[in-house]
Amino acid sequence: MRRDTPLAYGFVTRVFHWTMACLIGWQFMVASGWRVFGDSAVMKTVSLLGPSHRAAGALLLALVVPRAMWAFRNRCQRPVDHGVPGTSARIVHVMIYLLLFIVPGLALARTYANGKGFDLWGLRLVPGAGHRIEWLTGMADLLHAPLAWGFAVLVTGHVVMAVVHTAVLRDGLLRRMIGTPQG
Ligand code: HEM
Ligand code: HEM
């Protein structure tokens, strides 16, 4: 089933969800590695195992646009939970979407504003401004990391709730996102 239904998320939503979850996991693994190991040989080896932080971030920004459009198109036929837990989950999902635009968007805007631009796999993805735009680089320097760590807290809460639903409440919620509807 390609589209979502009230019982489960469809194939397209699931592919978006798990592909982006892996990329986000990678982003935070690399960012945590910077914190612990700095720019050492360990991180140089780790960086060979996956895309660069910039490339994965740009890919996430490119994926969140069709994902948000797909979610909007399926909004009336997705699984819905009522009451406070359902509303809280929806608020967290909307915040996740917003941060998936803002966090990489700010970082890419910085590559424009610092005049360097950004090439990905030989393609000029973001041109350089030609001169430094202080307010924009300043804003990205100030906000990219704290917003990204805030995003990490939100995603951790989301994952913890998925585990609680599965292991404690045993209501089959996770099955909606792995492709076997509740029976
Ligand atoms: C959803 C996508 C992204 C996530 C989750 C993310 C996450 C993070 C995190 C957590 C840090 C802080 C590391 C620390 O505290 O030491 C960071 C730093 C950084 N990120 Fe990203 N990032 C994303 C996208 C991007 C993109 C697209 C670029 C570049 C085009 C980028 C460039 C940087 C740079 C240069 C730093 C170090 C300077 C700073 O802290 O602002 N990031 N990122
Ligand atoms: C790591 C980054 C993750 C992000 C950014 C994320 C984001 C989202 C979003 C936005 C939704 C709403 C549906 C949609 O629009 O796609 C969702 C649903 C869901 N996610 Fe995640 N997710 C992540 C990881 C995980 C993990 C690791 C699990 C399981 C352990 C998980 C379990 C679920 C479940 C069960 C739902 C359906 C919830 C419901 O029907 O109310 N997610 N996720």
UniProtKB/TrEMBL annotation:
Keyword Hydrolase in annotation: no
What is its membrane topology?
Multi-pass membrane protein
Q: Recorded GO terms, molecular function?
A: electron transfer activity; heme binding; metal ion binding
The record's annotation in Pfam families points to: Ni_hydr_CYTB (PF01292)
Q: Where is the Cytochrome b561 bacterial/Ni-hydrogenase domain?
A: 9-179
Gene Ontology CC annotations of this record: plasma membrane
Query: Which locations, inside or outside the cell, does it occupy?
Result: Cell membrane
Q: Kindly state a single biological-process term from the GO annotations of this entry.
A: respiratory electron transport chain
What are the names of the required cofactors? heme b
Q: Could you tell me the keywords of this UniProt record?
A: Cell membrane, Electron transport, Heme, Iron, Membrane, Metal-binding, Transmembrane, Transmembrane helix, Transport
Q: Where are the transmembrane segments?
A: 7-28, 48-70, 91-113, 147-169
* Lineage: superkingdom: Bacteria
Q: State the family it belongs to.
A: Belongs to the cytochrome b561 family.
Please give the PANTHER family that the UniProt record associates with this protein. CYTOCHROME B561, CYTOCHROME B561 HOMOLOG 2
Query: What protein name applies here?
Result: Cytochrome b561 bacterial/Ni-hydrogenase domain-containing protein
Origin organism is Novosphingobium resinovorum
